[in-house]
Amino acid sequence: MNSSLIQRMKKEHFRLVSIDLFSGPGGLCTGFKWAGILPLIAVEWTDTTAETYSITHNAKVFELARYFNGTETDEDYLKLFMCESTQTLLIHGDINLISSAMVKNFLKARYGIDSVNETVDIVSGGAPCESFSIAGTRIPGDKRDDLFSNIIRIAKTVNTKTILFENVKGMFSKAKDGVKGAIFKYICDTFESRDLLPAYKLVSREQNEILLKACDYGVPQARERLFLVAIRQDFTNVDFTYPLKTHGPGCKNPFVTAGDAILDLEPVEAGVESTQYTPLKHFKSAGQKWFISIMRGQYSDSSMNTSVPGHLLEKGLFNDNSISCHKGPGHRKKKLELLALIKERESMYSTFNTLTETGEISKYRHLFPKTIYGSRNRRLLDDKPSFTVTSHCLDEILHPYINRAITPREAARLQSFPDWYQFAGPYVAFHSAKEQDKYEQIGDAIPPLLGFAIGKEFVKALVK
């Protein structure tokens, strides 16, 4: 790595560099940066999600579709990006179309990394989870099952030291060739394949070790995700360990609750937006103070710096008294009537059952959908971490007290995205559209505080 890049990185407190594949809006990127890891290259194909990443992280965007201009390639456009820089390069396009040679050339030209004498420390990626999720269709042989192979392809191309792969718990049980759970073994075996060198060894395949729960690391949400870590076999002195729990029973810190996370925000009604934030003068607990200070970009210690990125301050996109994306959904009259029936600490499902048991359901049956799903329209419990925030969170999570679904900013808080995060795209879009709305982007992301916990372990293992 060229010396000027190293010097500039150290000034910005970065100790490792990475490649961020299937980057989404940048949840892992944010956590890694807090831990001192700078993503040099990111890849994302969804338009609005790539815009969120580029705006928030000041990434330079390389439009893959512009480079592949019809039947020819635009080499003049490519040359615009082949210059020395410490700015993250976001490749916007289909990862299947990104050649290994292109990635190597960008690393060499922009960052002085030749993949022989020097390489990136981590190649990370959370391939789309829809084909593995228990809530999805889980079609056998879904072509998305093999998207993860791009992570391995690029990792081996650049000779990275380590690999991080993230996905949903449902991967453990999905079948392959008719065998339940075989897809997980297939993925693990592929990571450790020696068909193409260099070879990598997984730190662990044990489900109870690689499955991490977000609330155990300060995220106000009981979200479970699996993380596979692979280390290049010639790095015999690298000792990676999965992060120890920092929050919850038996830990120094209690769980951060949904109330800790969102109740300092303006209590907007349905259809109402607030752009003003009033800083709290008093916190109900040390845990709330810690979490809110991270959300507001005001927390810093020897291992973590959450300060607001300078480019957002310079552009006036954030200040101490501002908030964005805090708009109550504009529910229709029928939906508002339904929400008014759902009491604190209750859900649509429990409310339907109560009305049925008391013989009152006939008066309100017209307000309920034909099928009553247990995961829909659940009120947050202010004294516990939230249930999992998904890409469908607009239909699933209700404010603890107000008759509306959560705002995008509240969803972002439950995921531990800081308030300076700039989410592009519409508030609501058709769910299967290529253009992801704010809720989908937030729900699909890796929680930054969980990314930070893992990132710290990479720093411990790789920085000698």
Q: What's the level 1 CATH class of the domain at 3-245 and 445-462? A: Alpha Beta
Radius of gyration: 23 Å
* CATH homologous superfamily assignment of the domain at 3-245 and 445-462: Vaccinia Virus protein VP39
Q: Percentage of helical residues?
A: 25-40%
- Cα-to-Cα separation, first versus last residue: 17 Å
What is the architecture of the domain at 3-245 and 445-462 at the second tier of CATH?
Answer: 3-Layer(aba) Sandwich
The total count of strands amounts to 15
3D shape = globular
Low-confidence stretches: 129-140
Give me the number of helical elements.
Answer: 19
Percent strand equals 5-15%
Task: Specify the structural class.
Answer: alpha/beta
Mean pLDDT, all residues: 92
Largest sheet, if any?
9 strands, mixed
CATH topology of the domain at 3-245 and 445-462: Rossmann fold
Task: Write a compact overview of the structure shown.
The chain has 464 residues and is α/β, with parallel strands linked by helices.
